[in-house]
């Protein structure tokens, strides 16, 4: 299920001093495999010191463009991000898993707005392009926060989109470390949200809100929107990192007999409840899909067919999806002596 494919890098472009965009050549036979929806991500496999690492990166190109491109910001102690920003070049090959993700557009609405900070612009840029290219009746407002212009990924590309679609696309820049002309100074917080939505754009009724960036920003923007009467179903978010480690409430000091259904095959084995279902499956030599292992992507979702499990944390699944039996296997620990998990039925 988690099969990856060898793709050739067609371009590595420096976007800021600490970020690059990576474009891939997609062979004709893999065009359908790597077709994507705006807002989705790919997972790149990278071997470092004999250990396989998996990293998820959001696609910044639009589906209509025919280009598969991601943005990669260098992070402290980031193995692949450091490599991508310093050594990766056109002609190199990478192991890439097909696109996935739930941070996608609700189609054909009149007015969209996105709040993005830092590298959170990556999937939002894809959403913007898709809206402008495919929904001529729709408008998009971007509120984009960074330390300064130099660190703003895709800054010139965003300005070009404004020139190309002056009546349908607007951008408000927010910089936290340097005052700039025609930009707000500070961070994307409650005051910024209220200023734009209740003052500058108070005549516009936004129907969908897209949030991408650090957890603290997403929590504050989401809370502000809800305080202003926005229905939670209208708010969509994508986390790039989380400070929350997650805690288990129930006891997990026994063993469980687990049945894992993967690629139409069943594997039955015993596992300690102190381990996550994903960890146990990997230890057993299985190859389930996964990426971040931090509970902030949707790659490792499976359906709980029998038994119960508790998740340390969940930033992805809705209450209805959990009620329908879906779990994040990287976060889920069994709480019953027997459990059946189906990766195929999602």
UniProtKB/TrEMBL annotation:
Span of domain FAD-binding FR-type: 2-106
Source organism per UniProt: Aequorivita flava
SUPFAM superfamilies for the chain: 2Fe-2S ferredoxin-like, Ferredoxin reductase-like, C-terminal NADP-linked domain, Riboflavin synthase domain-like
Signal peptide: none
Domain 2Fe-2S ferredoxin-type stretches: 256-346
Pfam families, per the entry: FAD_binding_6, Fer2, NAD_binding_1
Annotated protein name in UniProt: Ferredoxin--NADP reductase
Cofactor dependence: FAD
GO molecular function: 2 iron, 2 sulfur cluster binding; flavin adenine dinucleotide binding; metal ion binding; oxidoreductase activity
Keywords: 2Fe-2S, FAD, Flavoprotein, Iron, Iron-sulfur, Metal-binding, Oxidoreductase
UniProt xrefs under InterPro entries: 2Fe-2S_ferredoxin-like_sf, 2Fe-2S_ferredoxin-type, 2Fe2S_fd_BS, Beta-grasp_dom_sf, Cbr1-like_FAD-bd_dom, FAD-bd_FR_type, FNR_nucleotide-bd, MRET
